[in-house]
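Thread: "does anyone have the structure for this chain?"

Original post by V.I.:
We have the sequence but no experimental structure in hand. Need at least a predicted one for the grant figures.
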Amino acid sequence: MRRIQFASDRLVQQVVEGTKTASVVRLGEVDVEEDEYNHPLVVGEIYDVYDSSRTRRAAIRIVGMELCRWDEIPERLWRGETNRSAGEFREDHVEYFGDPGPGFEFVAYYFQRTK
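Reply from O.Q.:
Generated one for you, tokens below.
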């Protein structure tokens, strides 16, 4: 089974509750195995979701990915990230992406909770 962690336990809880159905990753990091708890992202694969104490909390299936631009955040993404608008999404991610410019590209991935 593949594994994945999110940046905070609050985000993991949103996955457990089923409210978070999307996340993002930098270009060039989609296919990177960060460590034994963060495997490369592959559409169609199932991942065990772990919290910061490395306790399994849920399982998700990656159902899609798309290339996104900072100045054109898709509604599907900001809603899946539990934001109220594209602007709120940008506020939440500006530090993560290092204050990106309008043409900055990144990958959105979408998932469904399976267990």
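V.I.: this helps a lot. Helices lie at 9-17, 75-80, 86-93.
O.Q.: and Residues 5 and 50 are 5 Å apart (CA to CA).
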